[in-house]
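Quick one - first record:
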Amino acid sequence: MITFEAKINDRIVRMYSNYPLKNAAGAIFKTLTQIESQDDNDIFDSRFVLGFGWSFFYTSERKDKDGNTFYVVETNDYRKNPFKDRTDDVTLALLAQNMQVEAVSVAKVNPEVATFRDTILVLKEAMNASDVYMNRTEPAKDGDSGWYFGLLNDPNEENHKPEDYLKLYSFELFKFRSEAIRVLELPVGTVAVFHDNNMTALVDGNDNPLKFTTTEEREKLAAKAREEWTAAVEAAKAAAGTDGETKKEE
């Protein structure tokens, strides 16, 4: 587990992740710092909630082995029940953040917020299909993301019955099509096509192609990032004379 650390208003704040998601963690720390600098805002209050893109974040007071106080950033636990369970492993939340920020940036569109608790309409038959698509229309009500998940070139599209569909929370995409998490903040009108867990096409509401990165491109970037991270950690260990894993973000 990697530990990111920052000092906010003279208090130590830590974040734990399984991956070196430095930029995503840094964005959270920066936002917390900005909020804490404003009058009448206290990020260390147990009632504090930060809505940041798709996820929600909280601060929890802890004590180290020497009795010193520090704070840990927690998020909703997508591996359990995110409506009642929290975790200090923010890996999935940071991954979703990175995926969605990258998708919006590469496509060069304005994001439209969708949270983990917003619903999507899913054709049951599409959940285990190879070739599927997602289409975002205007949300029908609060709590509706506007996204539909269906079969590509569905021969029975006009004949489906209400019982053929499910309404799922958007975080449940992690269970059967994690790559679809990437597109959730793209605007109304967007259509994304997937083959298995790979996005193969992306267009806007006027059928104009939108740019996106392929799985292969992202894997190359991730490999490079891992090499850079490993080199930085090894250099830090050598300088400090320690085998620790902590990476501090000021």
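second record:
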Amino acid sequence: MRLAIIGYGETGRAYGLTLRALSGISVDCVIDVDLARAEAGARALGVPAWGDNATIALRRTDLDAVIVTSPHATHPALAKEALERGLHVLLEAPLALRYPDAQQVLAYAHAYNTVLAVNFWSRATPGVRLIRERIPRPSFLQIEAVIDPLRDSWMGTAEHGGVLGLLGSHAFDLACFLMRSQPLYVQALGGRHTRRADLADTVAAGIRFANGGLARVIVGEFGHSLAGSTWCIRATDGVITMAAQHNRHGRAMQVGHHPQQDAPQIASLRAFAGAVAGHGQPLAAAEDGVRAVQIADAAYESMGARRRVLLEEPSLHVSVGPVYADDSVANRGYHGLGA
């Protein structure tokens, strides 16, 4: 499989180093809006091509797939452009920042019969896998994800989704993955408790599922982890209770007090390559990415409207329109601030 990496920041570099250790996959092109960074990445990986224009790169006839690790707001447009050209896509979460955009990406994936995977790597961590194995039907989940305040990062801005874009998408996907049920509605509170952000920097959401289970998800910018975000997951079915946590770049999970070593990123990449080759499914499919965006959107709507928000089935129509009352990212700054 020959692929291009679009976005060569910290995450893109991590992909590049990981891909060097995998057989059957080659990076043929590195793209970044900073041309010097793209060139440096290509030379470090021994890649013959680089550039600062994703559209030109996606016209190449020697590519099979792309990995999109660019800033969050760019994900839907890049994914749709790649899918239109028949390329398979592995997309860093979130799939989109707005639910209508996510539905459009899903429609494109179905229309062009390509593999669109979302890198929900946390599904492959040992702690999550063990909880899913031993508690197949939780009655209650609690997922907490915190990070240092995003004062000097583009990830903290409303344009790119803030803390829900960075952590919430992963957390909501984990809730659905572990619950194994359709989410029915969301009720959320939040506010700007840590910094004068453009939107809520702390969010607590309750999700009710069709099987009767309840998940509580808390994400916020109130951590003190220089190495990355800190996660804690608790699950119970009323008989068995388990917990898992990690705090090292979101890559190492442990169960109880016994560290478990794994390579979830490699697992995600291998599952994607297998799906492209027609063997099995990706670790997380387009539908999973859409569902996580839908829940995040509903959480913002709930904060603004002070009520629970029902979750409808995603549409596969490319022309799908606004879903909730506030359909602009810019206006999210006032959501939930008095809650």
